[in-house]
Amino acid sequence: MSVGKGTIEQAAKLRAELQRHDRLYYIESRTEISDAEYDELFRRLKELEQRHPELVTPDSPTQRVGAPLAEGQGFARVRHEVPMLSIDSLFTVEEVREFEEKLRRFLKTPEGEPFDWAVEPKFDGVSIALFYEHGHFVRGVTRGDGEVGEDVTANLRTVRNLPLVLAAKPRKPPALLEVRGEVLMRRAAFQRFNQQRAERGEPVLANPRNATSGAVRRNDPAEVKRYPLEFQAWAVTQVEGARFDTHAESVQALSDWGIPTSELGRIVRGLEAALAFHDELEPQRFTIPYDVDGIVAKLDDLALRERLGTTSRSTRWQYAHKFAAVEATSTLRAIEVMVGTFGRLTPRAHVDPVEVGGVTVRHTTLHNADHVAKLGLALGDRVFLERAGDVIPQVMGVAKPAEGEEPADWRATLPAELFDDAKGDAVKEGAAKEGAAKEGAAKESDEKESDEKEKTATKVPRPGVQCRWRERFVVPEHCPACGTPTLASGKYWLCPNGLGCTPQLVGRTQLLCGRGAFEIERLGEKLILQLVQHGMVQTPADVFHLEPAKLIELERWGEKSVENLVRELAERRAAPFERYLVALAIPEVGPATARLLARHFATLAELAAADEERLLRVEGIGPEMARSITAWFVAPQHQALMKRLADGGVTIVYPDRSLRATGRLAGKTVVFTGTLAKLSRAEAKRLAEGLGAQVTSSVSQNTDFVVAGADAGSKRKKALELGLTVLDEAQFLELARGAS
Ligand SMILES: [Zn+2]
What we know:
Structural class: alpha+beta
Number of strands: 25
Bound molecules: zinc ion
Number of helices: 27
Largest sheet: 8 strands, antiparallel
């Protein structure tokens, strides 16, 4: 049976389409189609290829998934022709200088002649050797013990960015090519993958490296395909039919053949530049999408490498200059309950100060009680801390549990900040600390002579702190800041006291004074706490009722600063609607949501009166948000807050509604559905709104017309059922341009 031109084109189109979706999903972490739609494309290609086997290309997505290993069958063992040796790991600048000194002595290169170094990030993945014959991927082998590895070819074929066939232009692939590099996962892709596992009830994986090394050695390629694996080459180890004089040339060739190499690599002249590359990359390590634990520097000149050769253990011509460790252990001294802006109680771990990945950690969040229980923490345990990504290091688990009786110095080693109300950064729990100070006051007077440690040994920690030897965390029955009984809410616990609870009052006042709200820059956290403690701020709106005569009596306030604040408040009293909404500190409503609301509701009164159904018609507002917003507006203390703002002279500036009244689509309610060809959804929305229309997400009797693009589904159907006008994209554009 001969294959028609149409069929050939169809197969090519399906292949290209699948490859594009693979790329979107695994490399750019987004999707345009559902899993079912992807499977359908895959099935159609497979069917075509089965009917016309001559259509199968070696790089077809269907060729990436092979058969699983038979029961009890292991991977074939393969001896490395060139051993995969380790790289000398160096930690200090002195060690790096010594390394180069040795090279100079060996090569008899004088001081004045700098070496060219090929420098690149050292990825924390799984090392692998790939073999290509005449441009076709034929074998992939793990490092193993460096001498003998395992043949994991079938698994590596599923790695999306690993070319099965090398590009033949601009240069011909060599007869034989061995490339070495790293199989790895992007942190973001790993997190998403882990989340999906958790949703399916599968165990979550510790980190991208462990997940990768597990995936590479699984015995079913179809399973491996689900992991977001990628490949990054770092060296050409063997080549027949091509010749390179420098590392840079070989990297260029890899890139010509379509093999991915690190974009961060480069050639630098002299050791100082190689050291500088390390210092430049280290602070970026958490913004690079992969885990990187140092840099690798190798001599660019391959003839020099040849002269240096290898030792039995490692190569002489390259070194790894490691970054500061991102893992550390420390002792868990206390767990303190923090009260957040919206009343959420969050346990926080206090540990002995320790450096992790370049930051010194004294305390870190433990998220919620479930998380603490899952980690199995008891006070006094030696715990693992790890820094992943650009966030505060987290407690990962117990390294060594606390045992036996309480050590004699346990109390003395507790962090002083848990006892001292003048220090510490946890300003928010001001009320809590005040309480602690009062309790401790009587003892304090007798203790003036004694040193800090003895003080700690006898004083009472501030409320919310649990610090007994081998104690396990329990959620307090009462809010540590205000004493109100706590409530469970999902996996969290709350203090329901709202503005009556100091940390919540301070947090919400901060939001009101903060970015995107009234932006009263002079009122930071510390000054707000001071005003709260002096009873001058009892609701966030009291900021607009401050009396200069009272302010000036406070510590740290001078005539000038009072004057400045009064002026700033006067300038800020008229606030755009969306900023006013941010200032209200409605849970779930940040600047983006506030903007949506301000655009869809003409006035505050209209918004306050809206029910959930009305809110849900605003595109971008989900059920949880709608519930949170309506609940907020009915609470008497919030109505009082808005009144107090108005009494303080605050006015709301509404956006210019003239377009709504006079635009070509004034007063119309429009719904977009399906995929538009000429406009993005956001553009279409902006266009309609610019003409005075209101764009909503669901079709109802109130909808004036529906604009349906390609693949429009249920919304289009519903519109037709309701007898609404349905326009296609061209008709909508005509309408927008005023052609009819
Ligand atoms: Zn409270």
